[in-house]
Amino acid sequence: MKQFAVYINPNLDTGPIFESLAELSRRLGLKFYGTQAQRDIIPAHLECCDPDQGKMPQIDCVLVFGGDGTILRAKTIAILTGAPILGINLGWLGFLSETTFKELESSVQSLINGKYKLINRMLLNCKLKREGKVVFEGLALNDAVIYKAETPRMINIRTYSEGRFVFSARCDGAIACTPTGSTAYNLSAGGPLLTPEMRAIVVSHLNPHLLSIRPMVFPSTNKVCLKVTGLHEPAWLQLDGENVHQMLIEDEVIVTEADVRVEFIKLSARTFYRTLRNKLHLGK
Fold first, then answer.
1. Considering the entire predicted model, what is its pTM?
2. Annotated catalytic, 251?
3. Calpha distance 115→99 (Å, rounded)
4. CATH class of the domain defined by 123-259
5. Among residues 106, 194, 257, 269, which one has the fewest Cβ atoms lying within 10 Å of its Cβ?
6. Domain extents in the chain
7. How confident is the model over 139-175, as pLDDT tens digits?
8. Phi/psi zone of residue 51: left (φ > 0), alpha (ψ -120 to 50 degrees), beta?
9. Cα separation of 138 and 185, whole Å?
10. Which fold does the domain 3-116+267-279 belong to in CATH?
11. Where residue 55 falls among pLDDT bands split at 50, 70, 90?
12. In terms of DSSP H, where are the helices of 237-281?
C-alpha cells in the first residue's frame, strides 16, 4: 500500500495528524490525499480529490481519524474507491476503529508489509417510498432509523417481510440495522448483538407501548418494509445517524442487503468478543 485517502473529524486538532502524515510521506514515500469536501481543513501541500465526481487516483486504503461517527461518514469514500477502511481512534468509544494515533506509524508499516486481514461488512440499501414512488435512496453501514421527531405522541409502524405482514407497533420509532450496527443504537434499544460476519437485518422498535413488541432478526435475503400508518407530524428517516429525509403518513422504508459492501482492515488478533468485553464491558 502506497496511496491513502484521509478523512478526519473536523472538530479535532488536526495539526499533529498532518505533521505525522507529512513525516510518513517523506520517510516512506507514501502519498496522502484529502477530499474536496474537507478542503477547508486540509493543508495546502496536501492534494485534494473529489470521489463524488470520480476524480480520485488509485487509493489503497482510507485512513479515518476520529470515532465511529467519522467512520460512518467516510464509508462513501470506501464505496466509491473500493479501498478498505482503517479507523484510527481519536473519539470516545471507537468500536469500529482498529488502531490509535500513537500506533499510526506501526500500523502503516503493517499495511506496507501486507500484514493485515480484510473484514467484509454488509450494507443496507434503504428506499423511501411515497405513494408508490421512490423519493429517496441511500446506503447505511450501521442502521436506518425512523424517528418520530417533533411530535410528543407515539407513531404507528407496521412491519412486513417479503410482503407479508409481521406486526404493528405504537412506538417512538424503529431501527433496521446491519450486524455492524447491532452494537450501536440497536443495542441501546434492547436489540441483539450479532457478529459482523453474519448477513442479517435486525428490526428493533424504540420505546414500544406494548411489552410484547420484541426485536426480530430477518435473513439478509429478505425485503423488510417499515410503513408509517399513524403520524401527527412529519417524522425523520435517519441513515447512520444523519437526518436524510422527512417522512409522512403512509410512507414506507424498504430495507434490503445492498449489492456493495465495505471492507475494514484488521491488524491484530483481537477478536470481536474481546472488543465487546473491553469496550462495552460485556459480562462485567
1. 0.91
2. no
3. 14
4. mainly beta
5. 269
6. 3-116+267-279, 123-259
7. 999 999 999 998 899 999 999 999 999 999 999 999 9
8. alpha
9. 19
10. Rossmann fold (3.40.50)
11. low
12. 272-279
